Amino acid sequence: MPDQKTIGFVFIEGFADWEYGLLAASAVEWFGARAVSLTPGRRPVTGISGFRLAPDRSAGIDENADLDAVAVIGSDQWAGKTPPDVAQLLNAVATRSGVVGGICAGTLALARAGMFEQAKHTSNGRDWINGHEAGYAGHGNYLDVPHAVTDGKIVSAPGSAPGTFALAFLKTLYPERGVDLARMRTLFAKEYAEAS
């Protein structure tokens, strides 16, 4: 596919298994994207479920010059005392006008990289993000909402919103695919409308 887009998914130890599945699978199956897994140092990591992930690449910028987008997946370690630094990767993708997304504690990596300085965004709650990254650039742009937020090419979401994160991310990466995105939204919404 000549116009195939490549999305990097950043995982660290203790990654939240439920936060990337809808986005990764939908991007590949319905949009023809290529998904690659990235970890700092290209080290294997284990998710909350205990599933082990052997990454395709490191999170270094040299290995990822082809990325059209990057999604930082949550883990409690992003909120730890010595979280990995992926700012160079995020800024490199943003500089190329790529999509940069973060969900749950992955939003802390975006805050540290300055992605929210000019962008409306959300996370796991205003007090939560400020408690972990007090005074980060753009903290006044925080929106306290339970769904994903998009501003330009920056996408953020609380950990409880993998569905809207997937939709918002794909809408930003594939703005021309409105019909497919509408189908996807209808499919996701139907589950919640009928489950009671």
TrEMBL record:
Query: What's one Pfam family here?
Result: DJ-1_PfpI
The record places domain DJ-1/PfpI at: 7-171
Q: Which InterPro entries match?
A: Class_I_gatase-like (IPR029062), DJ-1/PfpI (IPR002818)
State what protein this is by name.
Answer: Mlr3762 protein
Instruction: Tell me the organism.
Output: Mesorhizobium japonicum (strain LMG 29417 / CECT 9101 / MAFF 303099)
